Amino acid sequence: MTNIKNNAATQETRRKLIEAAGEVFAAQGLHAATIKKITAKAGVNSAAINYHFRDKFELYAAVVRHALDDMCDHKRIFKELVGTPEQQLKELIFDMFEDTRGPSWRTTILAHEFAQPTAALDAVVEELIRPHVQRMDNIIRQILGSTADEKQVLQAALSVVSQCVHYFYNRELIRRLHPQVFDKCTWQDMAEHIARFSIAGLHDMCSQ
Amino acid sequence: MTNIKNNAATQETRRKLIEAAGEVFAAQGLHAATIKKITAKAGVNSAAINYHFRDKFELYAAVVRHALDDMCDHKRIFKELVGTPEQQLKELIFDMFEDTRGPSWRTTILAHEFAQPTAALDAVVEELIRPHVQRMDNIIRQILGSTADEKQVLQAALSVVSQCVHYFYNRELIRRLHPQVFDKCTWQDMAEHIARFSIAGLHDMCSQ
Amino acid sequence: MTNIKNNAATQETRRKLIEAAGEVFAAQGLHAATIKKITAKAGVNSAAINYHFRDKFELYAAVVRHALDDMCDHKRIFKELVGTPEQQLKELIFDMFEDTRGPSWRTTILAHEFAQPTAALDAVVEELIRPHVQRMDNIIRQILGSTADEKQVLQAALSVVSQCVHYFYNRELIRRLHPQVFDKCTWQDMAEHIARFSIAGLHDMCSQ
Amino acid sequence: MTNIKNNAATQETRRKLIEAAGEVFAAQGLHAATIKKITAKAGVNSAAINYHFRDKFELYAAVVRHALDDMCDHKRIFKELVGTPEQQLKELIFDMFEDTRGPSWRTTILAHEFAQPTAALDAVVEELIRPHVQRMDNIIRQILGSTADEKQVLQAALSVVSQCVHYFYNRELIRRLHPQVFDKCTWQDMAEHIARFSIAGLHDMCSQ
DNA sequence: AATGAATGAGCCTTCATTCAT
DNA sequence: GATGAATGAAGGCTCATTCAT
């Protein structure tokens, strides 16, 4: 009589499907990925997608939500930040990098969604992304000081976030341009650099 | 009975097809774009694609090659830059924004290539991207001074480029998070901000 | 371990299923009706149909049989008719209309059988229709008098029955041609008209 | 450049498909009929239906239109009727019977549609049925005289039409009830009877 | 050179049914 | 006795492609 499917078996099948779908969607894109490939990889019948997710797109939406959910670890949102605003910003940047571990299809799927959003993204952007954005904006607002207007806060936030995002979403392009980059430069190096580079930029914005 | 099709009518049909295909591929991606949509937009019969390009993928390759030619042709790459390195960097940033202005499908097609590389990507990287990168690296090397090592140059370049790329590559995501951003903040504003923010960051990198 | 399912719970579930199936089969027909719609309306699990009736068609057969039982049970068939043959005919016509009143799915199910006979049709004809026909023939034979041959009785019976049948069997077509017909003209009006029209026709058949 | 497909080849394929579809739809109903059965019978590829009719239902609509078009021969609508209104009515009734020749699937399809109309019927009822109805109404109005109101005209028309319709749309049911009816009673006999029976009924309607 | 007609392959989805619990 | 989970078969439809003209 309950709509919520929470049996162990169901949950396990859903998990297998999302995992398999994530890989296939990442490798081939929403359209080129076929139900057959996904269900074959998951080791279930093709009708299972209809049973568990109603249709292909609903499965895709579940994959996107799962990827975002995993990536934006929500425990971290409510973590108490300490120290100066600058220290808090640095910690935030390190957190973003730390979040990018896990199956590599997550970043690929999200890169697609960010570049060309589908309805799947709209369904979760408010719930899963906005809180992070607001947190970032607050810290930046503190660094810029009370004289900064909203436009400046926005521009600054874009500058900070873009540096992180670029590093893991455009991984493949970067690797082609600088083959050894990920050997010579760990993610900690990169986070360290971005923090310092950005804080300098932010301070400069106040200087006039 | 020559294989080379070079009379006027044929060339005109090919041109129309590439133009139409470019828009559709940009809007929907390689797989979601259908022959019917493309030929309808071009105002020709659906068999025309197979006739002129052998198959759909061959058409796509032609489109990518065309977009590439168009953008590489830009005299701007070989334009003489003047002024201090900082002024040159600023000009480069403005050029990047200017390149992506207008309702052109060329950048979108290339974005697709980044997200889901096909055989065409290698050419894109080497012919279009690398010259820009090298130019950028040179200027940054000048700003950082002779004490900077390659790793620093690379990190700095990524920081600068990422801010520009993010602005038009993740445009749709940004629009969802900040609905009026593209009204309140013109691309000139943005380029201005990125230039100043980055130069501050770069100067900070020398300071220790 | 008996095959005969006759405890209370089982009987109740069967009853709910037949009722729900009757409505759905009537509204959509045998093929368009789906197990899911039926079980949803009955408030039971979709496996219930296979459990209680072995398969979909067996359920359909049960529904037809049920509808038949219900209608044949009618005391009206064996009701004593009084008055002149003409009065009896009029009463018969009113009875036909009265049988089809109400939001019952029984007549609709039977109409489906007429349009696309399944194995269940034979039973319908012999058990439900033929008694009515014979009764009708008897009365008409009385009105036409002893000089009428069987062909005339048959033709006359068809004329009378067809007018009634048309009114509810082709109801939807009539509604499309004369949108307000069922407002302006009650079934009593219609029965009254058919009785008078038919009796005039019948009398004319004797007149030569 | 023209949307109207009127090549000989196209027309021939369309004709074959409609003929095959008519038989299958009549035998199995809209839902149970499958594209495979239809195209197999027509000797064409399954995709042909999409090409010529867009989808299964559009094919069905074409079949219904074709059946009605064939049945309501339009030359007859504009035929000059002569003689008294009673003679004209008789001629109309004979025309209706004459129209029912042709492939037997036509009547079956139409019987379904009249009993449970789909959108296919709505699309053609005004164009193909209404003119016949109006013609019939006009003649009946003449017979009933100027004192008759619209309700009476409607009831009378239903009485006349129903007798004809019943005879060929419920053929199967009639045959089961009176096995030899179609041997003993030709359609001319039946038309003759209906005309006389109805005219008596109509005259009776004026008599008070 | 170009096109309307036709096709085969494959995709997503639905459905009735079965199985383990 | 009853059900949630899972499945195989089949259906309608779309697509890129080919063929005859």
Structure overview:
The structure is a homotetramer of 208-residue chains. With 208 residues, chain A is mainly alpha-helical. The first copy, chain A, folds into two domains: 4-53, Homeodomain-like (Arc Repressor Mutant, subunit A), CATH 1.10.10; 69-207, Tetracycline Repressor, domain 2 (Orthogonal Bundle). Chain A has twelve helices and no strands. Chain A has helices at 8-32, 35-42, 47-53, 56-71, 74-77, 85-98, 105-115, 119-144, 150-169, 171-177, 181-184, 187-206. The first copy, chain A, is elongated. The mean pLDDT of chain A is 90. At the A-B interface, helix 1, helix 7, helix 8, helix 9 and helix 10 of A face helix 1, helix 6, helix 7, helix 8 and helix 9 of B. Chain A binds a DNA duplex (21 and 21 nucleotides) through residues 5, 7, 9-10, 13, 34-36, 44-52, 55-56.
Feature tags:
Tetracycline Repressor, domain 2, 12 helices, Arc Repressor Mutant, subunit A, homotetramer, 2 domains, mainly alpha, DNA-binding, 208 residues
What order do the SSEs of chain A take from the amino end to the carboxyl end, as H and E?
HHHHHHHHHHHH
CATH topology of the largest domain in chain A: Tetracycline Repressor, domain 2
Q: Percent range for helical residues of chain A? A: over 70%
Number of domains of chain A: 2
At the fourth CATH level, what is the homologous superfamily of the largest domain in chain A? Tetracycline Repressor, domain 2
Distance between the termini of chain A: 65 Å
Overall 3D shape of chain A = elongated
Q: How much of the polypeptide of chain A forms β-strand, as a percent range?
A: under 5%
Name the average pLDDT of chain A. Answer: 90
- Which architecture name of the largest domain in chain A does CATH use? Orthogonal Bundle
Structural class, from helix and strand content of chain A?
mainly alpha
CATH class of the largest domain in chain A: Mainly Alpha
| Main sheet makeup of chain A | none
| Rg on CA atoms of chain A, Å | 20 Å
| Total beta-strand segments of chain A | 0
